[in-house]
Structure formats: C-alpha cells, structure tokens
Amino acid sequence: MKIGVLALQGDFEEHIGMLTQLGIQAEEVRLANQLDLLDGLIIPGGESTTIGKLAVDFGLLKPIQDFGQDHPIWGTCAGAILLSKETHRSQPLLGLMDITVERNAFGRQLDSFEADLEMGPPLDTSESSDPYHAIFIRAPIIESVQKDARALLTLPDGRIIAAQQRHLLATSFHPELTNDDRFHRYFVTLIEKPKA
Ligand code: GLN
Q: Residue 101: which of 158, 140, 147, 65 has the closest Cα?
C-alpha cells in the first residue's frame, strides 16, 4: 500500500512521518501522474486558499477530483476545507464531499485550542477507548453534512469536527500533530475495504 500526501503547502511532512511510523509507504505528491501509483491521498493542514491556488497552478485539481471518485482521500483542517462543496467564500475547491464548512469558525479569541473527545466505533473498536486529544488551529467547523456524508466525531456541544462520505474523510483538527495514530489507522481501513 502506498499513500500520497499532497505537498504543495502545509504540514505534509508530519503526515509522512506518521504513515512511516505505521510502516506504510508514503510519498510527497506534487505532480498529477504520481496519483496513478497511489492507493490513497492525504491533503494536509495549511492554508486552504494557498493549497487550492497551487493545485490549480500545478494542474492537480481535476486529477485529484478524478482520483477521489474511487480512491480514499482524507483532508485535515485546510484539507477538509478543500474536500468540501461549500465554504461561503470564493476559493478553488475539490468539492468532493457533500459538506458545508465554515472556515476559522472558532474566531480570533480561540485561534488554537485542544480538546479531549470521546472516541467510540468505528474510529476505535477497543473495549475501553482512551479519549482522543484533538488539536485545532484556526480550524473550520463542518457546519452541515448532506446526502450520504455523515458526522463521525462531534464536540460536546454537537458541532461536527469529523465527517465521512464513503471513502472520503474530513477532520477539522490535526491528528498528524499528535502521537495518536488512530485516525491514520482508520484511514488505512478505508483503503483496505473492498470497493462497493
Ligand atoms: N484556517 C485555515 C484555512 O482556512 C486552515 C488552518 C489549518 O489548516 N490549520 O485554510
């Protein structure tokens, strides 16, 4: 199995490090033809407008949209924004997931924060799962999920911070900045799943 990490801007190196620790072959992706040899793709955190513009300049937007039709893609933070259909702003998007996202939803007061969250199935199937320590940095909220997109993890107040639509995954926080590899392992299960 080989997973690519879009390496135009943002914290792609941390994702590569996490995948490597899991014993998975990982590759920085900057060219469309690299997608041909990948089983899945991660779009990292960073600045979604910058990543989007660079993806357009590098001729990657359409190839990633095509790749996402039948391959797992996971977007963290800015990556989740890029996967969404709607952000209430004008910016290049992949529009692969039927989710509406509000950028920088926590405002200036709460630029960054961390939260311990309950994590049950399907993310953690062990009998007593430890709380998940989520790191938010100028994070978006997944305002709503539509069609067959569904909420996967919420804050205690009900706001959605992770969503899944078949083989597509969006998290508004940064699992790659922790030592907790449960989200990376969950993404791997999406790749291993036989295609419907
Ligand atoms: N605020 C950024 C954006 O709107 C995302 C921040 C992040 O990826 N940590 O693109």
A: 140
Single-letter residue type at 106: F
Q: Are 151 and 115 in contact (CB under 8 A)?
A: no
Q: Is-above-0.85 flag for pTM? A: yes
Query: Could you tell me if 103 and 139 are in contact, meaning their C-beta atoms sit under 8 angstroms apart?
Result: no
Q: What is the pLDDT of residues 52-66, one digit of tens each?
A: 999 999 999 999 999
Catalytic residue among 14, 15, 71, 77: 77
Is residue 172 classed as helix, strand or coil in its secondary structure?
A: coil
CATH class of 2-192: alpha beta
Q: CB atoms < 10 A from the CB of 192, how many?
A: 11
Strand partners, 76: 171
Q: Is the dihedral of CA 172, 177, 181, 184 positive or negative?
A: positive
Q: How many H-runs (helices) and E-runs (strands) does the chain carry?
A: 5, 12
For the chain, the domains span 2-192
For the question of residue 118 being annotated catalytic, the response is no
* pLDDT confidence of residue 83: 98
Our answer on whether the CB atom of 92 is closer than 6 Å to any ligand 1 atom is no
SS3 34: helix
The verdict on the CB of residue 152 being under 6 Å from ligand 1 is no
pLDDT, tens digit, 9 for 90 and up, residues 150-169: 999 999 999 999 999 999 99
